Amino acid sequence: MEKSSIFQRIPPKRDGRGTIVLAGSIAQRPARAGHTWVFLQYLLGLRRLGWQVLFVDWLDEAMCGRPVGESRHAKYLRSVMERFALEDSFSLLDRGNGQVVAGLPRHELLREAQRSALLLNVMGYLDDEEILATAPRRVFLDIDPGFPQMWRELGLADLLTGHDDFVTIGERVGRGDCSIPTAGLKWITTRPPVVLEHWQRRHECDQRAFTSVVTWRGPFGPLEYNGKTYGLRVHEFRKFVELPRRLGRPFELAIDIHADDERDRALLEENGWRLVDPVEAAGDPDRYQAYVAGSFAELMVAKHMYVETRSGWFSDRSACYLASGRPVLAQDTGLDGLFPLGEGLVAFRTLEEAVAGVEAISGDYESHAAAARGIAEEHFDSDRVLAALLSALSVS
To answer: What is the predicted pLDDT for the residue at 308?
Structure first.
């Protein structure tokens, strides 16, 4: 399929190999620090490689319930940017009128976008036509593989048109053993970067629990495609709900679960899961790091979409656990051949394999913890991941 653009290009004034613009959604999800770190890894990692970075986010009054610039959403974004010395490297748009309510003014944002080497548009979050038209190159970055491709094929939504290049963290997208459609596009595959200087290995462990920080359902509903229904994390988690009861050891979730899912909450608690408030446990970037580092290991349960399609998806959160020297017991999404499995990173498909994985990690913890950090250094180091991505995009 020929790549097309719905935006009229504005010719750049000069070569712009000094700046990369990242469009994302930190302000849209305040106090959800795992989501925040998704974007920080790119911003801090690209800065380590010598790039100027500019983060673009947007809000509207319907989302905030009050003027955008006065909202807790805007305050959260400002605090995150200041925490990482990015206070001069972001713009927050009021989607209602297109004005910048925090950070770099709109005319400076447009100037920097025009000078940029590329604009990384995560999940097509940015739809401001003037900014997109100004950028000389627009790259769609897919962090939820399967959904944007199937939405387009089904005619439900098209987030892809208007971009020049297409990147996904679904490392098997485009391979014969992955059932995610390519939508006729050439996909560059990558993996979640981790800026290792911000994720040092901690040798001491505050607790003995397998933990995770999860959203029970997320913003998207299940999809029917080619006669199959592709579901969410909740649909997979129920398969493994017996783990704490079976093993008699602590499992804890910092879980964002809606009040309407009270039956699922009760099911988790009946089977021995400790449930904690994700905002209290991990509501800002520093607390999130501390929660991950204070865990014994992570249990990573994936969305049904990722598992059923053999997407090769790996969690950005799990990469942070590995970098902190915390082993990861990961539901298999087609990981074999992508990462070393068995020590530090243990994959499972069934409840019995999950039980065996917990016992293996617990039985030789120090070896698994050391291997976890080694996997992060070899496979998720932002210096390597982002340099490889820019090389694949022919950006020097």
So the answer is: 97
Q: Is the pLDDT of residue 8 over 50?
A: no
Class of 19-193+382-392 in CATH:
alpha beta
3-state helix, strand, coil in the chain (%, to 5): 40, 20, 40
Tell me the C-alpha distance between 99 and 210, whole Å. Answer: 44
Residue for token pair 């974004």? 77
Ordered DSSP codes for 140-173: EEESSTTHHHHHHHHTS---STT-SEEEES-TTT
Helix extents (H) in the chain:
33-48, 61-64, 72-83, 106-115, 129-134, 147-154, 233-237, 243-247, 262-270, 278-282, 285-293, 304-308, 316-323, 351-363, 365-379, 382-392
The CATH superfamily label for domain 196-379 reads Glycogen Phosphorylase B; (3.40.50.2000)
Q: Up-side HSE of residue 36: CA atoms within 13 Å toward CB?
A: 24
Instruction: Copy the structure tokens of residue 53.
Output: 């970075």
pLDDT of residue 391: 97
Say if residue 12's pLDDT is above 90: no
Question: What's the predicted TM-score (pTM) here?
Answer: 0.94
Structure confidence at residue 206 (pLDDT): 64
Assess whether pLDDT exceeds 80 at residue 9: no
- Which residues, 6+ apart, have CB-to-CB distance to 372 below 8 Å? 321, 322, 324, 325, 326, 327, 328, 344, 345
In the chain, where the domains are located: 19-193+382-392, 196-379
| Cα–Cα distance for residue pair 151/155, rounded to 1 Å | 6
* Among 101, 109, 102, 142, CA closest to 123: 142
